[in-house]
């Protein structure tokens, strides 16, 4: 297994991390040039120049969708009279199989705060929130301590670096709902309302939190900002092996020898991560399938392992890069049971706002449970595929249901025989079925 020697020029997110995995707090962070990027940026650049710099860097959102960060920032109103505006850090990391933001928050809290400080300056926001997954207790403790440390030395609060820029950051822990990862549901929850997604338009950049212009970015996205401002866009583009710029927190979980997460350049292949970093499959187990970036991404097979881990390449083969924390499936796992477990999670986490998601996901789960126990009926597979179509993109209020059925549809594509095996053999003799459009009974055949 390859050991990573983290360096500032190749590992901007993780080079300061301690070998004992303890958090890096203010003294240690500032001793390694922490907050120097923020000071330089606030003193020498305008907000508009920071937005253009991030746009030029090619930084894309690290939460899963990959939307260009600089472009997202540029959508905020230019009208200076609209003074109240917000920056939200989406730290509601509830995607099964994903734990990269947890690592960054627990071990590098000041890096996130510095990234938020620069980002808020670029967005002209004086108030920022970290919407944190409620189960991340250690991250909450470390972030709150880091915020207090920053406040005590004037890195947060009023007149930061003598620039007349003010910023307060508040950690808000959620109540444990996956749907809060959707940015408008996050805003509703933060306002004390039920976490249902909002209709768009209007978009958060114009009417967001409490009706004010709002920008929402992911933890990993914001953590990239200090290094980009300190080292420039040419450097940031140069550390990637891909058209996607910079590095990405990537990893493998499942029955591998060394599950974990590593900061790697875009463009490395999944096979390289699996074999050289995760150590391959555990002894006696064979690789069967994988999901590139969490439980809501489509399954791929061994033939796709040599594809570069980048947004476009993964999309071309029918999946999504997502969070880039892949999940390995070994040969002992039933795909029906695995997908049933995934659909049980997504069905439970549906907010219930729209009918297709509220009714369709439990229906798909019911069918999968019957297939899992070999009690399926003739026509179940066709019903599942029909549900996948009707819960797909553009058919529901938000992206929850399309993400939920993506693994189901792909599993049926590559492992259909396992789903067919769940149909009772006796059904072929004792139930009515259709042949060439004519209804027949088993006794007549």
Number of domains: 3
Strand content: 5-15%
Number of strands: 11
Roughly how much helix do the residues carry, as a percent range? 40-55%
Q: First CA to last CA: what distance?
A: 60 Å
CATH topology of the largest domain: Rossmann fold
Q: Give the spatial strand order of the biggest sheet.
A: 3-4-2-1-5
Element order, helices and strands? Answer: HHHHEHHEHEEHEHHHEEHEHEHHHHHHEE
Number of helices: 19
CATH hierarchy class name of the largest domain: Alpha Beta
Radius of gyration: 24 Å
Strand-pairing-aware structural class: alpha/beta
Pfam family, one: Complex1_51K
Family: Belongs to the complex I 51 kDa subunit family.
InterPro entries: NADH-UbQ_OxRdtase_51kDa_CS, NADH-UbQ_OxRdtase_suF, Nuo51_FMN-bd, Nuo51_FMN-bd_sf, Nuop51_4Fe4S-bd, Nuop51_4Fe4S-bd_sf
Organism: Candidatus Erwinia haradaeae
How would you portray this structure in words?
The protein is α/β, with parallel strands linked by helices. Helix content is 40%, strand content 14%. The chain has 19 helices and 11 strands. A 5-stranded mixed beta sheet has the order 3-4-2-1-5. It has a 4-stranded mixed beta sheet with strand order 7-6-9-8, covered by helices on one side. Strand 3 (157-160) and strand 4 (165-173) form a beta hairpin. Helix 5 (100-107) crosses helix 7 and helix 14 (335-349) packs antiparallel against helix 15 (355-372).
């Amino acid at each position: 297994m390859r050991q990573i020697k983290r360096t500032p020029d190749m590992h901007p997110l993780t080079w300061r991390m301690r070998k004992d995995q303890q958090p890096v707090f203010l003294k240690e962070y500032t001793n390694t040039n922490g907050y120097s990027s923020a000071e330089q940026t606030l003193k020498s650049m305008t907000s508009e120049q920071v937005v253009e710099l991030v746009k030029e860097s090619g930084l894309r959102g690290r939460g899963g969708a990959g939307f260009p960060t600089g472009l997202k920032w540029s959508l905020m109103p230019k009208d200076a009279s609209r003074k109240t505006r917000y920056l939200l850090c989406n730290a509601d990391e509830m995607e099964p199989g994903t734990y990269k933001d947890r690592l960054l928050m627990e071990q590098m809290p000041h890096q996130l705060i510095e990234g938020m400080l620069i980002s808020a300056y670029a967005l002209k926001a004086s108030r920022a929130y970290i919407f944190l997954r409620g189960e991340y207790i250690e991250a909450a403790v470390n972030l709150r301590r880091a915020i207090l440390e920053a406040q005590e030395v004037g890195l947060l609060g009023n007149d930061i670096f003598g620039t007349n820029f003010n910023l307060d950051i508040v950690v808000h822990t959620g109540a444990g709902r996956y749907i809060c990862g959707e940015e408008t549901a996050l805003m509703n929850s933060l306002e004390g309302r039920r976490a249902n997604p909002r209709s768009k338009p209007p978009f958060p950049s114009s009417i967001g939190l409490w009706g004010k212009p709002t920008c929402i970015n992911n933890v990993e996205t914001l953590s990239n900002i200090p290094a980009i401002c300190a080292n420039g866009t040419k450097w940031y583009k140069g550390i990637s092996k891909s058209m996607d710029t910079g590095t990405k927190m990537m990893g493998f979980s499942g029955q591998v020898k060394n599950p974990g997460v590593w900061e790697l350049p875009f463009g490395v292949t999944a096979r390289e991560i699996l074999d050289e970093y995760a150590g391959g499959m555990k002894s006696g187990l064979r690789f069967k399938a994988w999901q590139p970036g969490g439980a809501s991404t489509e399954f791929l097979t061994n033939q796709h392992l040599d594809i570069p881990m980048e947004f476009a390449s993964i999309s071309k083969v029918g999946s999504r890069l997502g969070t880039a924390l892949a999940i390995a499936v070994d040969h002992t796992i039933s795909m029906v049971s695995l997908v049933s477990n995934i659909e049980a999670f997504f069905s439970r986490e549906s907010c219930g706002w729209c009918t297709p998601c509220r009714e369709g996901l439990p229906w798909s789960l019911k069918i999968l449970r019957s297939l899992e126990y070999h009690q399926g009926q003739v026509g179940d597979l066709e019903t599942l595929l029909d549900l996948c179509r009707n819960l797909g993109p553009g058919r529901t209020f938000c992206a929850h249901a399309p993400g939920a059925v993506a693994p189901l549809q792909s599993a049926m594509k590559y492992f259909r025989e396992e789903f067919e095996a769940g149909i009772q053999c006796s059904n072929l003799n004792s139930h009515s079925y259709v042949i060439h459009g004519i209804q027949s009974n088993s006794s007549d055949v």
